[in-house]
């Protein structure tokens, strides 16, 4: 009698949602001692916690922002993964570029910038 091998089961564990303290600790690690301020109106919360949060810091002659987004679809944005992006602004406040700064892998943050 032959046996048929079954493919391994994929365990779908619930996604880890970082709390405010953990997000802030990653912001501070990325800032490396730079001063920052929250961007007014850019801290969004739902029943699961923070899903979007922006902070601004001086960067050369202009300013830049770190933007945290939680994986999911929201009124203001949609994110395929939970992470923090750096957004570069010119001296008029217009976005001139950006890139990934950190991403959440499981329950651990990986700094990518």
Describe the structure in your own words:
The protein is mainly β. The protein has one domain (20-111). It is 11% helix and 49% strand. The protein is built from one helix and eight strands; from the N terminus they run H-E-E-E-E-E-E-E-E. The strands form two sheets. A six-stranded antiparallel β-sheet has the order 1-2-3-6-7-8, covered by helices on one side. Strand 2 (49-59) and strand 3 (62-69) form a beta hairpin. The radius of gyration is 18 Å and the shape is globular. 18% of the residues are buried. The mean pLDDT is 89.
Short description:
The protein is mainly β and 113 residues long. It has one helix at residues 20-31; strands spanning 37-46, 49-59, 62-69, 72-73, 78-79, 83-89, 95-105, 108-111.
Order of helices and strands: HEEEEEEEE
Largest sheet: 6 strands, antiparallel
Mean pLDDT: 89
Q: Strand order across the biggest sheet? A: 1-2-3-6-7-8
Q: How does the overall form come out from the CA principal axes?
A: globular
Would you tell me the structural class of the helices and strands?
mainly beta
Overall radius of gyration: 18 Å
Number of helices: 1
**Runs with pLDDT <50, length 5+?**
none
Distance between the termini: 56 Å
Strand coverage percent: over 45%
Overall tally of structural domains:
1
């Amino acid at each position: 009698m032959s046996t048929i091998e079954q493919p391994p089961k994929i365990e779908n564990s619930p996604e880890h949602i970082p709390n405010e303290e953990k997000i802030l600790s990653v912001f501070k690690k990325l800032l490396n001692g730079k001063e920052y301020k929250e961007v007014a109106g850019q801290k969004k919360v739902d029943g699961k916690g923070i899903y979007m949060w922006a902070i601004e810091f001086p960067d050369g002659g202009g300013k830049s922002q770190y933007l945290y987004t939680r994986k999911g679809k929201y009124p203001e944005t949609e994110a395929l993964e939970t992470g923090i992006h750096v957004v570069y602004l010119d001296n008029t406040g217009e976005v001139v570029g950006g890139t990934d700064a950190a991403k959440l892998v499981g329950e651990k943050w990986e700094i990518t910038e």
